Amino acid sequence: MSILLGLTGGIATGKSTIAQFFKDAGIPVIDTDHIAKQALQPGEEPYDELVDAFGADYLNVDGSINRKKLAQTLFHDKDAQTRINAIVHPYVLKRTRALIRQHQEAEEPIIVVDVPLLFESGFDQEMDQTLVVYTTKAVQMARLTSRDAIDEAYAKKKIAAQWPVSKKRTLATHTINNSKSILETKRAFDELLKHLKEVAA
Ligand SMILES: Nc1ncnc2c1ncn2[C@@H]1O[C@H](COP(=O)(O)OP(=O)(O)O)[C@@H](O)[C@H]1O
Ligand SMILES: [Mg+2]
Predict the structure, then answer these.
(1) Partner of 84 at 20 to 30 A CA spacing, among 39, 149, 193, 201?
(2) What range defines the domain where residue 9 resides?
(3) CA 21 – CA 19 distance, rounded (Å)
(4) Domain of 177: which CATH number?
(5) Each residue of 38-80: pLDDT tens digit?
(6) Domain count, the chain
(7) Do residue 80 and residue 153 come from a single domain?
(8) Statement: residue 1 has pLDDT above 80
């Protein structure tokens, strides 16, 4: 039985870190954040729609979309958020499903999909299993402020914009505690991978 595994967690709890472990182990990982970034590239369908909807104010001089400005608007303006999502989401969903299909056709036993808002979006329904990587709240705050060089007030808002990690944990098939050292996380990962390989064999 092959396993389609949805990988999620809270912001800065370690999704990308775990995704890298999977890649290092030769497991294909589909990065939906990366696909969402591709949506903003000139030549892609959502790019034209976004430029139509939001105007040249959101363009860099080279014609690429100013992602920082778009992200800020997305964060502060609910109405704009709805419009941006309506343009970008269908593209991400289509590309992600196509990549899943490709890996399934190649008979990959384990396929990982990294989706920050896996449960919030309902995309967990399309997964066989889910993995939530979590940390304590204090560790999440420390890693987020340090990685993104933002203050605690803004970090709090970012964290509050997602479901609590504690809630996601209750919905997960598997969880990994990434509160401590990378070494300990790697150990927990190795154990999980062994289990997944046995099930997928
Ligand atoms: N166990 C760990 N110990 C120390 N730093 C970590 C650990 N796991 C992740 N980090 C760091 O914390 C930050 C957030 O991790 P990341 O994997 O980018 O989270 P996410 O993809 O969930 O937003 C990154 O700077 C990463 O290098
Ligand atoms: Mg990440």
Answers:
(1) 149
(2) 1-28+111-201
(3) 5
(4) 3.40.50.300
(5) 998 999 999 999 889 888 888 888 888 888 888 888 888 889 8
(6) 2
(7) no
(8) no
- CA dist 17 and 21 (Å) reads 7
Place of tokens 């593209």: 91
Q: State whether 83 and 130 are in the same domain.
A: no
Give the closest residue (by CA) to ligand 1 atom 12. Answer: 143
Which residue lies with its CA nearest to atom 17 of ligand 1?
A: 14
115 and 21 inside one domain: yes
Q: For residue 15, report the distance from its CA to the centre of ligand 1, in Å.
A: 8
Residue with tokens 């959502």: 46
Treating both helix axes as pointing N-terminal to C-terminal, what angle do 78-105 and 45-54 enclose, rounded to 10 degrees? Answer: 180
Interatomic CA distance for residues 61 and 64, integer angstroms: 7
Is the CB of 9 inside a 6 Å radius of any atom of ligand 1? Answer: yes
More confident residue, 128 or 58: 128
Same domain, 140 and 178: yes
Per-residue pLDDT averaged across 115-130, rounded?
97
Average pLDDT over residues 112-132: 97
Average pLDDT, the chain: 94
Instruction: Give dist(CA 134, CA 79) in Å, integer.
Output: 31
